[in-house]
Amino acid sequence: MPANPWTICLALLLSSILALPAFAAAPPLLLTHVAVIDGTGAPVQADMTIAIAGARIAAVYPSGSRALPQGARVQDLRGRYVMPGLIDAHVHLTGAEPDFAHYRRHLRALLLGGVTAVRDMAGDDRLLGYLAREANADALASPDIYYAALMAGPAFFAEDVRAQEASAGERPGSAPWMQAISATTDIPLAVAEAKGTGATALKLYADLPAGLVRQLAAEAHRQGLRVWTHATIFPATPADAVAAGADTISHSPYLVWAGASRVPDDYRVRAMGDFAHIRPDAPPILALLQAMKRRGTILDATLLPFQQEAEHDPAKVGAGIMPWSYAVTRLAHAQGVWVDAGSDSSGLPDASHGPNLRALPEVHAEMALLVEHAGFTPLEAIRAATEVGAAAMGQSARRGTIAVGKLADLVVLGADPTRDIRNTGSIVLVIKNGRIHRKDAPRGLPRAPEEGVNQPAAGTAAYPSVAPGRTASLARS
Ligand SMILES: [Zn+2]
Asked: Which domains are assigned to the chain?
């Protein structure tokens, strides 16, 4: 009897189902005697055991309260701390590198710096799609990657070199991931094209009127995409973005426009708000924060890039931008608005020729700013970079906290980050999808879990210094 293709399919399906118990029976990895910071903001739980089966967390319990499973691989992490893998909720990976070969090292540096997922907020989706498929299938030692397709007004694409570079080969504004939107745009088609890039969300950027923001957000949600916007999309106001149903709004300083008497239709003034005269607690801004809290809109604060700009290129930002941005972020947090941690960079500090692969990822510095200037406790800053980051990407069900059933994406620390937030940099090892990655591991993806966890980590990265120069990627808000 000739082999029917369906019979072959069925046989393959059956054999793969039959093969599953073999994976399920693989010995669990146990992290024992470790202090757990679960990412929800809950206090540290001392002397816990985390059981990892395959890629997921199978159990979390006080050490010694259960018998060791047969054949378990045990990593005694006495004296160590574990937190969920960090999520940089605002990166721009593409454009920062001279060629493709560098991405492998760049992504690996992010992973070994404790970052197990990133949200890319606009770039070249041809490259991002490829990197995300490789990373998210665990074929690359990399954070998982979720990315946006950008939409803005036609004027933006006519003049913005970053957007032109990110869609090189396409007419400006016509690439599915860099679309110019106007009153005549076929919105369902535009959103479908954006979705076709593999993007998780639309990023609404620069210069769109409130009516278009509303239509695009509704259509994106209808088609199963999330909606990530700039806090002000000139002339659409922060209140317009929130009312349209934005899932996240980016950049604390742009909230100033919620208190302005009018929002110009020129997005180039976005960082030049009247920080001297508009109070962060002005009634319209408080009303906005309350609406965000009510609707669950996440504030993607990105304090770091503005702090760097205020320090190194103050003419490009409004006077008083940082005290104002810290104050409004503090207020948002106090009101119960969820705030994520995003660096608005390649994820790594800049060196003279691209990202500094030896430095700690910048999300650590963003967390430190939240603690040092915006009233977050260290546990709350860790939550911003874990549970809230996962929510920003629409990934709450799979990641962001240390809980049974979630991905075993974890960072083991040598020092207590609740004593000093900068101890998030004391990375001993990183676990992603249940596999251990260490700085001294050979390049490429280790196929078998590594042992010897308690050896001191080689080459622990120094706390990043602020680099003055930035690349010409879409990084920079
Ligand atoms: Zn950005």
From this structure: 85-392 (3.20.20.140)
In terms of pLDDT, which residue wins out, 308 or 447? Answer: 308
- Average confidence (pLDDT) over 318-332: 98
Please tell me the distance from the alpha carbon of residue 184 to that of residue 269, in angstroms, as a whole number.
Answer: 26
What's the 251 CA to ligand 1 centre distance in angstroms?
A: 9
Q: Tell me: pLDDT of 466 over 50.
A: no
pLDDT of 454 over the 60 cut: no
Contacts of 339 (CB under 8 A, 6+ apart): 298, 299, 300, 301, 329, 332, 333, 370, 374, 376, 384, 388
98 Cβ neighbours under 8 A, 6+ residues apart = 353, 354
* Average pLDDT in the chain: 89
How many angstroms separate the alpha carbon of residue 195 from the centre of ligand 1? 20
- Which tens digits make up the pLDDT trace of 146-158? 999 999 999 999 9
Quick one: CA dihedral 176, 177, 179, 181, positive or negative?
positive
What is residue 233's DSSP assignment? Answer: B
Distance between Cα 121 and ligand 1 center (Å): 6
Peptide bond before residue 235 is cis, with ω within 30 degrees of 0: yes
Task: Name the residue with tokens 């479908």.
Answer: 192
The separation between the first and the last C-alpha atoms of the chain, rounded to the nearest angstrom, is 64
Average pLDDT over residues 216-235: 97
Note the pTM of the prediction, 2 decimals: 0.89
Interval between CA 53 and ligand 1 midpoint (Å): 36
**C-alpha to C-alpha distance for 145 and 239, rounded to whole angstroms:** 29
C-alpha of residue 295 to centroid of ligand 1, in Å: 23
CA of 276 to the centre of ligand 1 (A): 25
Distance CA 477, CA 474 (A): 7
Longest alpha-carbon distance in the chain: 84
